[in-house]
Every structure is written in C-alpha cells, then in structure tokens.
Design brief:
The protein is 14% helix and 25% strand. It is of the alpha+beta class. The chain folds into two domains: 242 residues, Collagenase (Catalytic Domain) (3-Layer(aba) Sandwich); 107 residues, Jelly Rolls (Sandwich), CATH 2.60.120. The strands form five sheets. The chain has a seven-stranded mixed sheet with strand order 14-11-15-17-16-1-20, with helices on one face. It has a five-stranded antiparallel sheet with strand order 2-3-10-5-8, with no helix packed on it. Strands 4-9-6-7 form a four-stranded antiparallel sheet, with no helix packed on it. Helix 1 packs across helix 2.
C-alpha cells in the first residue's frame, strides 16, 4: 500500500493551498449542473470536456473501456460518468501496459452525490482498485494533475468486474501513549525519542496540570469517535493491547508540525499503525491563555484528525470539521466533529468527503444503546469557546501542511 504523510503545521498567516478553488465543487444531490468548471454533460451520460480531445466509453460488467483526454494546470480536472454501480463490483483504473505517460495524475471515484469513494495517484505499477460497497446511480471517475506534476495528455483503462467480496467494517483499537518513546518512527521518518507527557511541555502555566490535560485529550477523542466502533485506551489505564492496535504517541516537538500519521488507510485495511502528536509544538499557543480543558481539547482534536487519516479520511475545507485544513488555532480549541465537507484542493479540486459515512464503512457504528451519554457543557464554556474561535483570528493561524507532498510518486 502506498503511504502518504500528513501533518499539521503552524503558520503566521493563512495562505490558500495550491490548487484551491474556493466554493466550486459538484452540487449536492445527483444532478450534474452545466457548465461545471468547464465540464459539460453529454447526451451519452459521460462528462467529457467540451474539447474533442477527450473521450470515454462506459465499460460493461466483465469488460474494459478507455478514458482519455488532456488536463493541465492547478485546479483543473475532468469527470467521466461510468453509470450505475452495485455492491460487489470491482472498478479498476490503470495505465495501459503500452503507456508512455511520464506525467502523474490523481484519479478519484465519486458517487452520485460527488462524495469521495477512492483516490490514488496512477502509475504503471499503482492502479486505482475499489470494490463497491453501496449502490450508486452514478459513479464518476475524476482526473487531475498530481501534486507537483504539470499534467497533460492521459489515457486510462477502466475495468468493471462483478462477484467480489465486499469488505466488512474493521473495528479499531487505539492506544494513546502518554509515556516515553524510543526510536518511534512515523511515515518513514527518522525515529524520535521523547519523555513522558508533562504539562510543562506546553508552557509554565500548565505545569502541575498534566493529568487534567490528559483527561481532556482522552475525553475529546472518545467523544469524537463515540458513534463508531473505535475503542480508545489511555496508557494511564492499561498497557499496550496484546492484539492488533494503532498507537498515537504524545511527545516531542517539531518545527511547525502539530501531528503526523503514517498514511491514509482506505477503509482501515491496516490495523497496526502509528501517529504522533507533537505536544511540545503546542507551547506556541500559550499566548491564547487557554485553560487545561481547552488546551486538551485542542490537542485531542489534532489527535482525532491524525487517527482519521489512519481510518481512511482525507483533508477537508470546513473549520468545524475534524479533517479541516483551513481554520485557525482558535477553531482547534473549539468543538470540531466529523461531517460531510468539501475536499481540500490538495486531495481533488472539487467534490465532498462524507466523513461519517466513510467511518461507518471503515470501522462500523455502535448501536445507539452502546453510545455514551452526551457530555453537557455549561453555557459559560460554550460562550468561552465561541469567543476563542473569533478572538485574534488574524494573529494565530495554522494550516494543515502536506509534508512537502500529499503523494509519493
């Protein structure tokens, strides 16, 4: 499986990410509007560009067809409609064996509501493969130049085959390591060492508040994942589980990074992975004068974000959503949650990510009776958090960086 690096970075000012097309994405619902960023619907149901260089044919089950065309420049893309798809059907997008393409392209699958279903950077040795999990009245293939690529002409083979086993949700156990770490490697980086979590790492004002901070982090993460079959265990409660589990480490610091995850694991295929939250970097936010609960909530939001990558989620553009890349430090200090939100432009120029839906498919959902009771927050706390989200937004911003590149190619 290809591995991607994901991290939070701190910035003095919020800058638009390369390829960002604010406000432009396929409409909600199944109707395709015309024109859509230069893409128009044809009578055959395909969505080629107006130019005659693009072509597509819809493959029947058990056969292959070709999509081809040209796409260049940041923020540009092409969509092709494959029509109806049913659970158990495998869709494959690959380069023909005779292909001489030297440019890299990001290819995605969207459902009829333009929700992201699968994503990959297509190379001769790395096709996009997906077994459909839900009925879809339309499946769209989207093509855009990969990060760092100029784009150009493309030609891909699209295959459709039925009778494949549908992957069942895979519940996840997560161990939060507040202890020391030795040679901890995340996303193939050089191993890091760190001491046990201590509030003093965040600034002198948090010295002696270590337990309160840890309690707030754990509470925030458990609340974020309360709907889903994700068991979160603190190292204060138990040693590392003996069975398969993901570990999120809390320690060390980094120049600008708040967190880093191993990869985006589509539909939670790997049950044993790592992420790190660089708690020392949060000392930069001491000027916000957050109390221990608020600082813990901020750190917990980052940890939930990194875990989201390990469960198959990409970046979005909604400051209230946990996978967001566009908000400020004050948004991190508030209550974020998983929602349906616009994709970040680094993922694909248009489209949506239904985070709750993807998590349900990746790990499953809990019966209502097993969900913990909703936490009650005092009106004073609610008002305080609202103030934090608005106060001094122009002075402390953060952006979710991509560790040089979202994709390895």
């Amino acid at each position: 499986m290809r591995r991607f690096g994901f991290c939070f970075t701190i910035g003095i000012a919020l800058a638009a990410l390369p390829g960002c097309v604010p406000g432009l994405f396929p409409p909600e619902g199944g109707e395709v509007l015309e024109p859509l960023l230069g893409v128009s619907a044809s009578s055959s149901g395909n969505l080629p560009d107006n130019s005659t260089s693009d072509s597509a044919s819809v493959p029947e089950a058990g056969s292959t067809a070709t999509i081809s065309g040209s796409v260049s420049g940041t923020g540009n893309y092409k969509l092709f409609d494959l029509g109806v798809s049913s659970p158990g059907e495998q869709l494959t997008v690959s380069q023909p064996t005779f292909s001489l393409l030297t440019d890299y392209f990001t290819v995605v699958l969207f459902d009829e509501n333009y929700n992201l279903v699968m994503r990959n950077v297509i190379t001769s040795h790395s096709p996009l493969e997906h077994v459909v999990r839900l009925d879809a009245s339309h499946v769209y293939v989207g093509v855009t130049p990969a990060y760092g690529s100029d784009g150009g002409d493309f030609r891909f083979t699209v295959g459709r085959n039925s009778g494949f086993e549908i992957g069942a949700p895979r519940p996840q156990t997560v161990w939060l390591n507040f202890g020391a770490g030795n040679d901890i490697q995340v996303h193939r980086r050089t191993g890091i060492d760190f001491a046990p979590f201590d509030g003093a790492m965040l600034g002198a004002e948090y010295s002696g508040q270590t337990q309160a901070l840890k309690n707030a982090i754990v509470e925030a993460m458990r609340e974020d994942y309360a709907r889903y079959k994700v068991v979160i265990i603190s190292s204060d409660e138990e040693p590392p589980p003996t069975g398969p589990h993901t570990t999120i480490h809390f320690g060390s610091s980094d120049d600008g990074l708040l967190g880093l995850a191993d990869n985006v694991d589509h539909y939670n295929q790997e049950l044993e992975q790592n992420a790190v939250v660089f708690v020392g970097t949060f000392a930069d936010f001491s000027v916000m004068r957050l109390d221990a609960d608020e600082m813990g909530l901020m750190i917990g939001n980052v940890a939930s974000h990194e875990l989201g990558h390990l469960l198959g989620l990409y970046h979005t553009r909604d400051p209230d959503e946990l996978m967001d890349t566009t908000g400020t430090a004050w948004d991190l200090a508030g209550d974020q949650s998983f929602k349906r939100a616009a994709l970040d432009a680094s993922v694909f120029p248009v489209g949506m990510e239904d985070c709750p839906g993807l998590l349900a498919q990746s790990v499953g959902t809990r019966p209502q009776a097993e969900m913990p009771a909703a936490k009650t927050t005092s009106m004073m706390k609610v008002q305080r958090r609202a103030m934090l989200r608005e106060f001094m937004q122009v002075e402390i911003h953060r952006r979710c960086g991509l560790c040089l590149s979202l994709d390895d190619h």
